[in-house]
């Protein structure tokens, strides 16, 4: 897939809305010219920090949703589960995307509860009501594994944006799950790093240094998040739903995944964008139908 340029750069569309990010980007350009090592570290700190910060997303979910916390990699991770459901229902884990929060998945969770499932909403590290201020995609995938270890084998995972890539990576690594519903999955991280660097006018070499540092720190090659690597290792039925005009996660990302996965179907939507798709009744009905 050819990387977008200019106004079509998804990272530019994402960060342009945050004045703090724009100011930091200007500082990074100066620092990277004077001291590339410091520039790389500064770029990674910004890249790993969800923006806008999670404070606005810390409102509790309404009843009957109940909040619990459990320890994970030095922070407390939050899960939300309905208290009004009888035990024994098939468990479905719902995973938000970068800079999102569990509340964004609540309407999908309510639809799944009405259809006979036991939905569990996860706040990923540094998001929502979980602890921490920075996170990474490999940590997202580890958090999905950790949640499954507490919940038992999963009937399904419903995941949005970067959370969809984390769910796919976890499934490729053996996550016990029967079915996947992926909403507006992001482009692979290596591609997004390039967009990130260009959105701030940073040199291409800095993006290469960022990738090397991430792989060294996390112990995971970013190639493991590419459709070709995932497609060879995932056999679960997967439903992909994506708005064709999504400005944050290009529709082509779902097209590549659908072509790579062994058992996948792709449904195109229009007029919903990257976020409103989570609240659409037709999308919820498609997710429920797939998980059934």
From TrEMBL:
Listed transmembrane segments: none
Which residues are in the AB hydrolase-1 domain? 90-245
> Where on the tree of life does the source sit, at the highest rank?
Bacteria
What name goes with this protein?
Lysophospholipase
Please name the source species.
Answer: Piscinibacter aquaticus
């Amino acid at each position: 897939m050819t990387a977008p340029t200019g106004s079509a750069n998804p990272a530019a569309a994402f960060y342009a809305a945050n004045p703090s990010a724009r100011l930091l980007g200007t500082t990074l350009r100066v620092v990277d010219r004077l001291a590339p090592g410091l520039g790389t570290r500064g770029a990674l700190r910004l890249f790993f920090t969800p923006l806008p910060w999670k404070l606005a997303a810390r409102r509790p979910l309404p009843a009957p949703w109940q909040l619990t916390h459990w320890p994970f990699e030095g922070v407390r991770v939050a899960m939300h589960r309905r208290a009004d459901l009888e035990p024994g229902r098939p468990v479905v884990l719902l995973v938000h995307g970068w800079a999102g929060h569990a509340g964004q998945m609540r309407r999908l969770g309510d639809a799944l509860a009405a259809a006979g499932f036991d939905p569990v909403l996860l706040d990923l590290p540094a998001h929502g009501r979980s602890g921490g201020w920075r996170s990474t995609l490999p940590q997202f995938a580890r958090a999905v594994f950790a949640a499954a270890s507490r919940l038992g084998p999963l009937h399904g995972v419903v995941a949005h944006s970067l959370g969809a890539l984390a769910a796919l990576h976890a499934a490729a690594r053996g996550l016990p799950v029967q079915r996947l519903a992926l909403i507006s999955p992001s482009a692979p991280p290596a591609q997004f790093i390039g967009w990130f660097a260009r959105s701030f006018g940073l040199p291409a070499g800095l993006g290469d240094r960022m990738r090397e540092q991430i792989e060294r720190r996390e112990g995971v090659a970013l190639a493991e998040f590419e459709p070709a690597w995932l497609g060879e290792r995932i056999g679960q039925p997967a439903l992909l739903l994506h708005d064709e005009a999504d400005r944050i996660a290009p529709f082509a990302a779902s097209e590549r995944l659908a072509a790579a996965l062994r058992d996948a179907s792709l449904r195109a939507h229009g007029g919903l964008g990257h976020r409103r798709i989570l609240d659409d009744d037709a999308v919820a009905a498609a997710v429920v139908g797939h998980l059934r």
